[in-house]
Amino acid sequence: MNVDLATESSVAAPSGGQPLLPDVGVLALVPERWGGMWLSRHQISTRLSRYFHVVWQNPARSWRGGARVLNHADPTPPPARGFSVYDPGAWLPRFYRPRMLDHATERARLGRARHILERAGCRRVIAYLWLPEYARDLDFVKHDASCYHIADEYSFQNTEHAIPSDELALIERVDQVFIHSPALMEKKGHINPHTAYVTNGVDYAAFAGAPAEPADLAAIPHPRVGYVGRIKSQMDWNTLLAVARQRPEWSLVLVGPVGHMGEFESMRREVFALPNVHYLGNRSVRDVPAYVHHMDVCLLCYALNDYTRYIFPLKLHEYLAAGRPVVGSDIRTLRDFAGTIRIAHTPDEWIASIEASLSVEERSAERVEARRRVARQFDWNQITERIAGILCERLGGDMPSRFAGVTARKA
Q: Which range among 17-21, 182-186, 287-291, 393-397 shows the weakest confidence by mean pLDDT?
């Protein structure tokens, strides 16, 4: 699909084959500009383009200058089939005030994104919201179905909060809700009758392969105890510090962008300064599997609070697909995988669990395959196909039968 909108600052619209249902479009309203560390919305949106045309709408720039960028740079290009990135031009910024002007530019941005779908031949459009703050967009752009994907507890507070009234209204309003974690399902899954529980997944083929060892990792001695993901305040920094200090013979390897640290910034610096701690920086989505594959044990080390009980770590199934032993905190999501991973509470338990995970038995082909067998059930392709089928149900008419037909042919 080629789109020429010369007035926009950037519209990436690669050419390629048609989606299976090319008359349906998805307008993905997301908080990140395309690129950077891939989250669930990147994985799902790109795979939805196998079924529908998808436009990823970059967040608007502020009229005060600059764009709201919530991701680190990554040259990963958009996939070729049915996927486009719409980047609103500087002449259509977010104003905030006056409200009428802000609404006018919002309508214009959404209209131009929808126009990309229309030019691709889409007769029906799904508004796919990834944050509650996009609720007003449902009034600003014509759409045939709407969905709200809850991938996090968006209060980002360490203490329990009631569902905000605006998010509650959005959940009630949309045609479909998707929820990622069991705790969020328990909290919000009863509000809209069209709510589906969909976990985080894994690009199984990428993580189950046998990638070459990265050069910077090869220089780090074994055993390597690793974390690959965003470095953030919600990690259990006290435990990481204790493990690194008490086992100086272990290499603690951290890979990923450093996010918001708040009060834990000084502790992060203290951990990073230890001689057996190796921070390798951020890596592209293409390179991440190689780092995971060449760890000896992988960590999901989170503080226990009312925020982390709602998360579903994206890294869980990536670690398992690579066959790595995993030690995690006792958060709600990980309890469902207690038969596959080790769960630790105190620093002493963490050290004992890592020690056990380093055993020869844990590296056996049988144990590796057992972990991969779990991860295979959560391949992003399977998860996204289920999402696409549900969206066709919400569109109604002949869409469910058409979807069944094209997926049968694809199989």
A: 17-21
Cis peptide before 88 (omega within 30 of 0): no
Cis before 98 (ω within 30): yes
The rounded distance, in Å, linking the Cα atoms of 134 and 187 is 21
Q: What is the per-residue pLDDT across 282-326, written as a single tens digit (0 to 9) for each?
A: 999 999 999 999 999 999 999 999 889 999 999 999 999 999 999
Contact 379, 207 (CB under 8 A): no
Cβ atoms of 315 and 342 closer than 8 Å: no
Tell me the torsion sign for CA atoms 201, 206, 210, 213: negative
DSSP codes of every residue in 99-153? HHHHHHHHHHHHHHHHHHHHHTT-SEEEEEESSGGGGGGGGTS--SEEEEEE-S-
Nearest C-alpha neighbor of 115 from the set 147, 131, 99, 92: 92
Whether 13 shows a pLDDT value over 60: the answer reads no
What percentage of the chain exceeds 90 in pLDDT? 80
- Asked whether the beta carbons of 308 and 207 are under 8 A apart, the reply is no
Residues 6+ apart with CB under 8 A from 29: 57, 127, 128, 129, 130, 131, 134, 137
